[in-house]
User: Which sequence fits this backbone?
C-alpha cells in the first residue's frame, strides 16, 4: 500500500490542533526517532494511519465521521501537541475515548 | 487556464485570504446532492502575494479532479481549507543556499510557486529544476519555466519528440549526479511527485552524499 507524507493531512490536523502542525516534531515511542509531522508516513483507508518513517510503528490514528474527528496520538512521546477542546474533536487512548466528551 | 490536455489552473477568489507561502496547499471539498463528500489536496501554484491559484491534473478515476479540470466555470463556488503547510515551504527572504527542485509530473506545481516567488522577490540564489514528464505535451508551465531565471532540465520518460536534446530516462542517482548541484554546495532541496518517484530521487540524492536533513519531500501517492 502506498503512502503520502504527513503534509497531506496538514489540513485535518490543523482542524484538530487549531494551528499549523506540519512543522511540529514528534518522537516515536517505539524507536525514539524524532521527525516533523510533514515527514511522517500517512496511509489512508477507512481511517488514517500515520507511521514512523524509520521503524514503521503506528504513531497517530485518525477517523473522521460526519463532522467529528477521533484522534489517537498514543504512538508519540511528548509531542506537545494538544488537540483543541472542541465538541467535535475526540481524543482516544488505548482504544478508549479519554476526553469525556463523547460516548465511548 | 488550460496548461495541458489534462491539466488546468484555477485562479481562486477567496474571501479574507491572508496570503500563503510557496509550497503550501489547500484542501478542496466537494459535497454531492446526497451528502457524499470527497476531499483532495492541491498545491498552490502562484507566488505569495499573487492571487491564490491551484493547478489540477485530471485523474481518470478521480472524484474531485474531473470536476475541477473539466466542469468548473468562473463563478462556481466550492469549499476550501487552507493554506496548509509549514515544512514543505520555501521563503526567499533570507535564503542564501542554492535551490534544487526535483519534480515528477504535477509535482512541479508547488515548486513552480517557489520559482515564481523567487523571481517576484528578486532573489538571486541559484535555482535548478529537474523536471520529469512522460511526454513533451505533458510538461506543465513549459513556456513560463524558461522565463524564470532558473536552470530548467527536462527529462521525458515515455516519448520524445524528433530532435529532442534533453534527457530521456527516469530520474535515478546517475541522472542526479549529472544534473544536481554537488553535495558540497549543500543545496536546499525540495522533491515532489508520485511516491515511487520521490523515493527514487531522495534515495538517489542521499547515495550521492546529500544530507537527508536538507531534502524536503512531498509525495502524492500512486503513479
Assistant:
Amino acid at each position: 500500500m502506498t503512502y503520502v507524507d504527513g503534509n497531506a493531512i496538514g489540513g485535518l490536523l490543523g482542524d484538530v490542533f487549531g494551528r499549523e502542525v506540519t512543522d511540529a516534531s514528534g518522537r516515536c515511542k517505539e524507536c525514539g526517532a524524532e521527525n516533523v509531522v510533514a515527514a511522517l508516513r500517512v496511509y489512508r483507508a477507512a481511517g488514517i494511519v500515520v507511521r514512523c518513517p524509520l521503524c514503521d510503528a503506528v504513531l497517530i490514528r485518525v477517523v473522521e465521521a460526519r463532522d467529528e474527528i477521533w484522534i489517537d496520538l498514543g504512538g508519540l512521546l511528548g509531542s506537545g501537541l494538544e488537540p483543541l477542546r472542541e465538541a467535535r474533536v475526540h481524543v482516544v487512548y488505548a482504544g478508549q475515548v479519554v476526553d469525556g466528551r463523547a460516548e465511548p | 487556464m488550460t496548461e495541458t490536455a489534462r491539466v488546468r489552473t484555477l485562479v481562486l477568489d477567496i474571501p479574507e485570504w491572508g496570503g500563503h507561502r510557496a509550497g503550501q496547499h489547500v484542501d478542496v471539498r466537494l459535497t454531492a446532492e446526497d451528502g457524499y463528500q470527497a476531499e483532495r489536496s492541491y498545491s498552490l501554484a502562484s507566488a505569495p502575494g499573487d492571487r491564490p491559484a491551484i493547478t489540477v491534473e485530471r485523474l481518470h478515476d478521480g472524484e474531485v479532479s474531473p470536476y475541477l479540470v473539466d466542469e468548473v466555470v468562473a463563478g462556481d463556488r466550492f469549499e476550501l481549507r487552507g493554506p496548509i503547510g509549514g515544512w514543505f515551504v520555501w521563503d526567499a527572504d533570507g535564503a542564501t543556499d542554492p535551490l534544487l527542485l526535483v519534480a515528477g509530473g504535477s509535482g512541479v506545481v508547488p515548486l513552480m510557486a517557489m520559482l515564481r516567488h523567487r523571481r517576484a522577490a528578486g532573489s538571486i540564489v541559484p535555482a535548478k529544476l529537474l523536471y520529469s514528464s512522460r511526454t513533451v505535451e505533458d510538461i506543465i508551465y513549459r513556456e513560463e519555466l524558461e522565463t524564470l531565471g532558473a536552470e530548467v532540465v527536462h527529462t521525458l520518460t515515455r516519448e520524445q519528440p524528433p530532435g529532442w536534446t534533453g534527457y530521456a530516462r527516469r530520474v535515478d542517482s546517475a541522472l542526479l549526479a549529472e544534473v544536481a548541484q554537488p553535495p558540497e554546495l549543500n543545496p536546499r532541496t525540495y522533491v515532489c511527485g508520485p511516491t515511487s518517484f520521490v523515493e527514487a530521487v531522495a534515495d538517489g540524492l542521499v547515495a550521492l552524499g546529500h544530507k537527508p536533513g536538507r531534502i524536503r519531500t512531498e509525495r502524492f501517492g500512486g503513479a
User: Anything to note?
Assistant: Chain A has a mean pLDDT of 89. The CA atoms of residues 51 and 57 of chain A lie 5 Å apart. The interface with chain B takes residues 2-5, 7-8, 10-12, 14-15, 20-23, 36-39 of chain A (CB under 8 Å). Residues 4-97 of chain A form one domain.
